Amino acid sequence: xxxxxxxxxxxxxSVALWQDGELIERAEEVPNGGSERLLPWVHELxxxxxxxxxxxxxxxxxxxxxxxxxLRLACGVAQGLAYGLDLPVVPVSTLEAxxxxxxxxxxxxxxxxxxxxxxxxxxxxxGDSVRQLMAPVCMPPGAVQAPAFAAGWGVGxxxxxxxPLLVARKPDLEGVRSGxxxxxxxxxxxxxxxxxxxxxxxxxxAQPVYVRDKVALTTVERIARGGAK
Length: 229
Hints:
Elements: E1 2-7, E2 12-19, E3 22-29, H1 35-49, E4 58-64, H2 68-85, E5 89-93, H3 94-102, E6 106-112, E7 118-126, E8 129-139, E9 153-155, H4 158-169, E10 175-177, H5 184-196, H6 219-224
Parallel strand pairs: 1-4, 4-5, 6-9, 9-10
Antiparallel strand pairs: 1-2, 2-3, 6-7, 7-8
Helix pairs in contact: 3-5
């Protein structure tokens, strides 16, 4: 089985190729944009693996939650390739991929959602299996629910921006790893068994998962959340 994956929900952009369990990846931190990197990375990975694009069996992408533009980028590129090659698609939760990429077992995954909010969820990781313990939400860090598991790790750049507020919600964390990001390699590790299990969808049904209902706040809402006028 040969699969491609894209993860662009954060500033850490990546593309990965899975070939019968072997993974290779290209990645770079890009604060803004980065769309021009994805397809050249695809061609580099295919050349490294001595494969043609027509030999790919399916495409996965990090579906979110995450930055609006980044989610549309990954979904759009995945859909475009899937349409052109008549391939199935597997959307994968970006927070699940973050938990898997962390290498920890009990993970409180938090990404900075801007507007004084975080995307938050909790997972238990066993091998390449990730079980959701707390569903993704988008909330102010001082109000978000903490996971019920004992100890565990806080992972993701939500802890870089709002560490003290989040740790105050769960003081018994073993530690914090704010420099971990979701990766296309982690997306593929989650997507591969889903492809094998027939859980892929047609390209037309692949959609991002935003979680947040609003992408902008009024001045009153912004000030109420601690922002500036």
